[in-house]
Design goal:
alpha/beta; 216 residues; eight-stranded parallel sheet; 8 strands; Ribul_P_3_epim-like; single chain
């Protein structure tokens, strides 16, 4: 499988959101990554259902919705209705993770788990077969523009071993600090999907940067 690119819309200029999504629709991007932050689970607040619905109306690419919120199980149906194609919850925020994943699937969405930099891969031993996507946070979540944490490469290797051992179908996504300088190594180490925000939207030609990431 060729690696997937999911630009993070959080890094776009929200004064020109429609133009940013039109660019992504025409680009080599495979998905659009949407970060939802509540100011509690992470020290930042992004946006909620009205903005997500607006993005969905404009987007022709699937939406990967990444919930950096507490008690995400409260809003599963609302996120489906707002346009999420994949719903990604943090293992650190879900005391009843299996139930949450089942509820996501029952709504017809792909189920994903995100893990923070300090969370060990073996925490996924009992649940890896239940998900379509594992999102490894390669920075501490909450803010864009951070540098990728070097231990991420080892976590990718361990995640690949766990997936292969269990014959699981989950793809491995990397979120945080992804750019043209490290993308090749991330893919070679085992990443299937790259989430990139600042390095795309702060570049002089975002569509070309997406194409370059896709072509690696």
């Amino acid at each position: 499988m060729s690696h997937l690119i999911a630009p993070s819309i959080l890094s776009a200029d929200f004064a020109h959101l429609a133009s940013a999504i039109e660019m992504l629709n025409k680009s080599a991007a495979d998905r659009i990554h949407v970060d939802i932050m509540d100011g509690v689970f992470v020290p930042n607040i992004s946006f909620g259902f009205p903005i997500l619905k607006a993005i969905k109306k404009l987007a022709s690419k699937p939406l990967d919705v990444h919930l950096m919120i507490i008690q995400p199980e409260r809003y599963i149906t609302q996120f489906k209705d707002a346009g999420a194609d994949t719903l990604i919850v943090h293992i650190e925020a879900c005391p009843h993770l299996h139930n949450t994943l089942q509820a996501i699937k029952q709504e017809g969405m792909r189920a994903g788990i995100a893990i923070n930099p300090h969370t060990a891969i073996h925490a996924l031993d009992a649940i890896i077969e239940e998900i379509e996507q594992l999102l490894i946070m390669s920075v501490n979540p909450g803010f864009g523009g951070q540098e990728l944490i070097a231990h991420t490469y080892r976590k990718i290797e361990l995640a690949r071993q766990l997936i292969d051992k269990n014959k699981a179908k989950a793809i491995i996504g990397i979120d945080g600090g992804v750019d043209l300088n490290n993308a090749t190594k991330l893919i070679a180490t085992g990443a299937d999907l790259l989430v990139s925000g600042s390095s795309i939207f702060k570049s002089t030609n975002p569509a070309r940067t997406i194409a370059q990431l896709k072509a690696l």
